[in-house]
Design goal:
The chain has helices spanning about 1-40, 45-80, 85-95, 105-115, 120-125. With about 140 residues, the protein is mostly helical. The chain has one domain (about 1-40, about 50-120).
């Protein structure tokens, strides 16, 4: 089951990289829409208002995508270390990934199967300290 958890950690990092690219692209579109909103011709056509609304919407979407990317990257690294908090955060992100067709759904389902399986749960339990060696 450790192979599945390590593979899941890699998938979380890849999904984080995908969302980082999406967030960077949306940020570039935000800049373009903001530039259009600042430039107004001699006749007011309302396009500056539409560009302003687009800039705000794209800015919000890019911020959400970049936060989602950072969370997935961090959880992917934490899953590789088999920390108990990483399992809970990965389960929460798995629920959030389910509606993101098609890869998010597959990632969410695989994460739920891996992390809720009895063997997968055992990996994240704290291990008792080893007894002292007798001489």
């Amino acid at each position: 089951m450790i192979r599945h958890i390590d593979f899941l950690a890699q998938l979380y990092r890849v999904w984080g990289a995908v969302f980082a690219i999406v967030g960077a692209a949306a940020l570039a579109l935000t800049g373009g829409a903001a530039a259009i909103a600042r430039v107004s011709g001699p006749i007011a056509t309302g396009s500056d208002v539409a560009a302003g609304v687009t800039a705000v919407a794209m800015g919000v979407l890019s911020a959400i995508a970049l936060v989602w990317a950072a969370l997935h990257t961090w959880v992917g690294r934490a899953l590789a270390g088999h920390g108990p908090r990483a399992r809970l955060l990965a389960l929460g992100l798995a629920i959030g990934n389910l509606p993101l067709l098609p890869f998010g759904t597959a990632l969410g389902a695989y994460a739920l199967w891996t992390l809720l399986h009895d063997e997968g749960r055992q990996v994240f339990l704290p291990h008792p300290p080893a007894p002292p060696a007798a001489f």
